[in-house]
Amino acid sequence: MLQEYFSALIQLLAGFGFAGMIIVLSVIFGRRAKLRKPTEVPYECGNVPEGDGAPAFFSIKFYMVAILFLVFDLEVVFLYPWALGFKDFVLGNAAAFGAMAAFIGVLVVAYLYAVGKGVITWHRNPKPRA
Asked: Does this model's pTM top 0.85?
């Protein structure tokens, strides 16, 4: 019974061992920072801060496209196995076909909603909405 979990245990031990080894090596070989109060310098991943520290502003469109990419990219995770087994499993099973048709329907509605809201259009000066 336990033989089935042996490979998972080995992988878990290898992962923790690798993480521990990286931490130990960074302590041994890493450069030490100059002594100063941590509250005096903003944190920038261990690098010396450059510039005035003002954040760079991005349009919300970048974030919206990133979220849409994740949503529609994750659909491929569900659609790919379904497409591979379409002939064998789905054509003979009406419930599986109905479930996937509903899933694709929800994705189409989400896509049409995003297009309707203008998330996918890239105009420099968008027209104000009424």
From this structure: no
